[in-house]
Amino acid sequence: MNKIRTRAQAHFPTVLLTLISIIQALALELMWSKIVESEWLWNFNLQALIGWGMLAVAFMGILLIWVMYSTMVMGFIWQPYLRDSIVPFVIGIQEFMLITMVAESFNSLWLYVLGSIFVSATWVSHSSLRRARQDSENEEFFGQIDPATLRDFWPSMLVVVTLVGFGVAIDVTQNTSWLPLLALVFANAVVVFQIFGFRRLWRSIMGLNETSES
């Protein structure tokens, strides 16, 4: 059984990254089709600006999911579960919904879908890193970091609550101009911040911070 587990851990990164790359490629293809088929995006008005803001979030979200998985798989070793090969399909469906819902008339459901992606990504990263902490191969990294507590999840919870709050406000006020635009500015800023967060994690894993200091 130990040999089987070792073999699974050895092949797991290749299988998972291949699966993620296929799903992300399909999401990019869907996004490109949306851009080509949506003539309203090329009008110089508020609706087009909102549309490009939604596409910007979707594009950076695709990059964020790829960076998240590639950083975890190449940086850590953990015991894979069957759900690890199933959850990427769920995230892929969420990404497809996010892109498909980009339309000239802003739909608040788009914000709810975006919030659900944050929930899925947070759960995946926490579940994977928790198992990675239990593997002695990762002791050098986790030996300097305390286990996550509920307080560590407050930023992610705040992001999701804010996105849902924007969606509810739009539904109540029926505002399809400045309120969606404000929500998109917030969403873009959060995704960019998340990407830089994984950049810091990558540098920490690779020891680049120590190299810079020396």
Quick tags:
214 residues, mainly alpha, globular, disordered C terminus
Helix content: over 70%
In angstroms, what is the radius of gyration? Answer: 19 Å
Average of per-residue pLDDT values: 88
Q: What composes the largest sheet? A: none
User: Hey, roughly how much beta strand do the residues contain?
Assistant: under 5%
* H and E order: HHHHHHHH
User: How large is the count of helical segments?
Assistant: 8
| Unreliably modeled segments | 210-214
Gap from first CA to last CA: 44 Å
Tally the beta strands: 0
| Helix-and-strand structural type | mainly alpha
Identify the quaternary structure here.
single chain
- The outline comes out as globular
Task: Outline the structure in words.
- This protein is an all-alpha fold.
- 77% of the residues lie in helices and 0% in strands.
- The chain has helices at residues 2-37, 46-75, 87-100, 109-133, 139-142, 154-173, 178-206, 208-213.
- It is globular.
Topology of this structure?
Layout: H1 2-37, H2 46-75, H3 87-100, H4 109-133, H5 139-142, H6 154-173, H7 178-206, H8 208-213
Helix pairs in contact: 1-2, 1-3, 2-4, 2-7, 3-4, 4-6, 6-7
Write a brief structural summary:
The protein is an all-alpha fold and 214 residues long.
